């Protein structure tokens, strides 16, 4: 791309596209290395978890978000602040369970999948599994254990991408071994 064609381009859009392409290369390499969709999914989730554990500090420093007092407020912050800040989208929070401990995030457009088609023979690949790991890692750092999984995926022919989040338990602050 020439310098001329970059004039007037939104640097955030360029950075987002670079991230999307880089992520695609990472997933392609994992598929080549592991040759098993389930193992690739585990690796993506593990990477996402590690990112989420670190990203929460940046999120808390850069956002003006205070303490959330319930799971519904947490869901709104994840959608309206977290996803907006890091991916430029605002998923819809919906499908709350009757007990209020489970919800869905609906992504009409998943920026990670902009230039992607799943290769044949990889129907069990959860291409965006990194997002599940990011959510788990970030939530754990604020003392919430959650289960996160894909319900629907546009890459697999669904109309939307749906990520389900279930509150498992509140984590207690652990005292490091030998410091009690």
TrEMBL record:
Q: Name one GO cellular component term.
A: TRAPP complex
Provide the GO biological process annotations: Golgi vesicle transport
Which Pfam family is one of this chain's hits? TRAPP
**Chief location of this protein?**
endoplasmic reticulum
Task: Spell out the subcellular localization from the entry.
Answer: Endoplasmic reticulum; Golgi apparatus, cis-Golgi network
Give the domain of life.
Eukaryota
Matching entries from Gene3D superfamilies are given as: Trafficking protein particle complex subunit 3 (3.30.1380.20)
Q: Which UniProt keywords apply?
A: Endoplasmic reticulum, ER-Golgi transport, Golgi apparatus, Lipoprotein, Palmitate, Transport
Q: Does the keyword Transmembrane helix apply?
A: no
Family according to the record = Belongs to the TRAPP small subunits family. BET3 subfamily.
This protein's assembly is summarised as:
Homodimer.
The job of this chain, per UniProt, is described as:
May play a role in vesicular transport from endoplasmic reticulum to Golgi.
Database matches in PANTHER family = TRAFFICKING PROTEIN PARTICLE COMPLEX SUBUNIT 3
Q: Can you name this protein?
A: Trafficking protein particle complex subunit
> What organism does the record attribute this protein to?
Ridgeia piscesae (Tubeworm)
């Amino acid at each position: 791309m020439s310098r001329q064609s970059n004039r007037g381009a939104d640097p955030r859009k360029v950075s987002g596209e670079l991230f999307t392409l880089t992520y695609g290369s990472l997933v392609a390499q994992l598929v080549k290395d592991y040759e098993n969709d389930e193992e690739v999914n585990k690796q993506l989730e593990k990477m996402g978890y590690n990112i989420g554990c670190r990203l929460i500090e940046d999120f808390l420093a850069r956002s003006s978000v205070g303490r959330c007092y319930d799971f519904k407020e947490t869901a709104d912050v994840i959608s309206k602040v977290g996803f907006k800040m890091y991916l430029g989208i605002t998923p819809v929070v919906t499908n709350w369970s009757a007990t209020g401990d489970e919800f869905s995030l609906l992504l009409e457009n998943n920026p990670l999948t902009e230039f992607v088609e799943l290769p044949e023979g990889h129907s069990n690949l959860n291409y965006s599994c990194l997002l599940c790991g990011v959510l788990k890692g970030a939530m754990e750092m604020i003392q919430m254990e959650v289960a996160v999984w894909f319900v629907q995926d546009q890459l697999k022919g669904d109309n939307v991408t749906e990520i389900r989040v279930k509150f498992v338990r509140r984590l207690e602050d652990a005292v490091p071994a030998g410091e009690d």
